[in-house]
Amino acid sequence: MLSDYACLNFEGFYSNPTKQEKQMLHSSTKAKISNNPLMGRKTVRILVIYTGGTIGMKQDKNGKGYTVVPNYFADALKKLPMLYDEEYVKNGAEEIHNNSELDLPYNKYPQLVMPLSKMGTRVFYYLKEHDPILDSSNMSMHHWTLIANDVKKHYQYFDSFVILHGTDTMSYTASALSYMFENLDKTVILTGSQIPIFEQRNDGRSNFVGALEIAGHFIIPEVTLFFNNKLFRGNRTQKASASDLDAFASPNLPPLAKLGTEIEITWDAVFPKTTIMSFTVREEMSENVGLLRLFPGINAKIVRAFLSPPMEGIVIESFGAGNIPSNRPDLVDEFRKAAERNVLILNITQCYKGSVSDAYAAGKVMYDIGVIPGYDMTPEAALTKMAYVLGNKDLTYEDRKALLSRNLRGEMTIPQQQRQYSMRDGEFVKSVAEALRVSSLREMNCVRRALLPIMLTCAAKAGDLETIKQLISQGANLNEPSDYDGKTSLHLASAEGHINVVTELLKNGSSVYVRDRRGRTPLFDAIRNKQYKVVKVLLSVGAKFDHDDIEVTRELCIAANENDVERLRLWNCACVDMNQVDLDGRTPLHVAVLKHSIDAIRFLVFDVGVNSNKKDIYGRTPLESAIKLNYTDIINMLIRAPNTKLPNVLNERLEENLDNIYSINDLNHNKLINCKMNFFT
Ligand SMILES: NC(=O)C[C@H](N)C(=O)O
């Protein structure tokens, strides 16, 4: 069977699908694919970081209970058909992404491939197993750093990330990672299970498959946690049951997505990226933090001991809406003294649900001494936020307090920030709503959802910054494709070169990874339309191409064909591999030679330094094609290229011209270069 790419024709459809693929593609036309920003992808690459946990555990033979077992998980997964398409791999698909010519960090990880999805996507996942794998109860902050660095190291090579983790401390890790990942713009999902995946009855399979399915089809640029068919914001979760399969809860925020017969994503609830800075990891976390759960009659001496050095920051779990016993001056005094020593204190409620407020005098006393309200944060989110804020040694005490008070990653709801949608939505939406006799907020939201994406793309195309700003303030989902081609507002503004609109969109959460129906990103459209400034901005926020993107290869060959150096230069700036080959094994240099595109050849050979010795599927290098076509100007150019190997036919002609005085092997290098240079002049 040909490779996956060889099966694709230029419209991006399978020209020679297998019977199974035909069936799947047929059903995919019926499947609900709206709101699917990765929908143009035929293949998606996910890194699975396996840290341990019950999901991969086995019963210990000596009766010690479930234990982690290293180095068997990947092979064992290959026996599960919902997680591994053996048939597809047998037919040679495994080579697709294993580009051994390139030294990619994931080449050595086991590669697995899922069956074709309902939406027509092939998910390839690579399993990176931690050494050692752990029961999550044995994890520490150091392990959060290891996971964070794994994502950082592989960020540019993968579309999304799934982290397999024990459930016991999964909410801590998810919360910590949510802060450590700054300017995250890819999907990161933690999952695990209550019963090992290889037991007959288990929850591991549906959790793992569900996480891969979401990560393979949607860009939800947050650290999330997937369990029992629900996708939660990670820093809102708590492990709620030691034995139920519905083990996690998110008491103060409904799930971001639910998996039923359809995948239902609440896009309005997804926390958008709000800067144009590119992804970074802040790995330092302070260990000098603690959680203090108040109880009636708590001893002030014990509190003093708890607050003494090296303690740098604590989270108080107070009563009800944030109350402490205000009739206990000894206790309040301990908190005051600690605050005066610059110990940071966050106040959250010990209630399962709800938020702290200053409604009661018993709570107000806390804020008077400098305690920071943590509103509806979970203990896990509050503690890890404290560790994160204290880990940044460049910050002052005041900076830290300011950071703790802000909603950084959607971890808390600040009362005045609660968004109220009202009938005061934009004039156009309002008049449509009136014409339709909309009478409820629910109906109003339906009208908004139908109209905003279309209005966004129109404004983006026209470069209408003011309208864009208004639509953003009305809660428009920037990553929702609105036209038939699946283009988002960022695609259109990029193609048109509206730099201000592009910047505004990026600042408000537009993803540079969204793909249109053909798999093209905004960067692709910007390069295609030679929008230099936009290309620069998109590159600066981390937009990149896969090394094996067939659409890019085609574009390179088209630019070479058209002798369009300007466009070739832009592709080169975007760090694409200028040696990649089309379906005939031809590099852009081959194409430029065949089309006699002199400027393109000069650029590729002397400015980029491409490999001029690659052979196409007919076994010809660019130089051999030039000789065949008798393009002497090109031959002259190519033989000057520092790395060009002379083909035998040229060596023979060269020898003849040297009057057989020297044999080629005897010539010193300079003489050979001189001869080469003068040969066809
Ligand atoms: N279900 C689980 O994964 C529990 C296990 N003890 C862990 O956290 O690693």
Bound molecules: asparagine
How much helix is in the residues? 25-40%
Mean pLDDT: 85
User: Tell me, what's the shape?
Assistant: globular
Number of strands: 19
Strand % is: 5-15%
Q: What features would you describe in this structure?
A:
The chain is built from 27 helices and 19 strands. It has a nine-stranded mixed beta sheet with strand order 4-5-1-6-8-9-10-13-14, with helices on both faces. Strands 16-17-18-19 form a four-stranded parallel beta sheet, with helices on both faces. The protein is globular and about 100 Å long. The protein binds asparagine. Asparagine binds next to loops.
Short structural summary:
It comes from Hydra vulgaris (Hydra). It is an enzyme of class 3 (hydrolase). The chain has 27 helices and 19 strands.
Architecture blueprint of SSEs:
Layout: H1 4-7, H2 19-30, E1 43-52, E2 58-59, E3 66-67, H3 73-77, H4 86-90, E4 111-113, E5 122-134, H5 141-154, E6 160-164, H6 170-180, E7 181-182, E8 187-191, H7 204-217, E9 223-227, E10 230-233, E11 238-239, E12 248-249, E13 257-259, E14 263-265, E15 280-281, E16 289-293, H8 300-307, E17 313-318, H9 329-340, E18 344-349, H10 361-368, E19 372-373, H11 379-391, H12 397-405, H13 427-435, H14 441-462, H15 465-473, H16 489-496, H17 499-507, H18 522-528, H19 532-540, H20 550-561, H21 565-573, H22 588-594, H23 598-608, H24 622-629, H25 632-640, H26 648-657, H27 669-678
Parallel strand pairs: 1-5, 1-6, 6-8, 8-9, 16-17, 17-18, 18-19
Antiparallel strand pairs: 2-3, 4-5, 7-15, 9-10, 10-13, 11-12, 13-14
Helix pairs in contact: 5-6, 6-11, 8-9, 14-15, 14-16, 15-17, 16-17, 16-18, 18-19, 20-22, 21-23, 22-23, 22-24, 23-25, 24-25, 25-27
The chain binds asparagine.
EC number: 3.5.1.1
Pfam families: Ank_2, Asparaginase, Asparaginase_C
Domain Asparaginase/glutaminase C-terminal: 288-394
